[in-house]
Each structure stands twice: as structure tokens, then as C-alpha cells.
Amino acid sequence: MTVDLSNAKWFKSSRSSTASECVEVAFVGATASHVGVRDSKDPSGPALIFTASQWDTFLASGIL
To answer: Is the pLDDT of residue 18 over 70?
Structure first.
């Protein structure tokens, strides 16, 4: 899956600590149909992309 992240508005996850272990999240797509996740220490590095449904399943799993 290819998703354009060039205009993504990244924000720190509320689950990230204030230390250096930070995850950033961006809702992307015309209808926020995808969610990008990246390491805030490497913003130009790779990002994981989830569909909105996959993201909802992940959040509901309680892994966090």
C-alpha cells in the first residue's frame, strides 16, 4: 500500500512518555482513511501505515 505522507500532520501519541521513546501518529487520506505511525527520533525514516479499520482493531486490542 502506498500512501502520500508529504502533507501529513504528525502528533505525538498520548501513550508516549515524555522521555525519548516517542511515537508520532498522523491521520492521512481525504477522509482520514489511513493512519501513519513513525518514530519521532527519526521523522525522515520509515512509517507504518494502517487502514482506519486496522488501527481501530489495534486500539481495541488493549496492547497499549
So the answer is: no
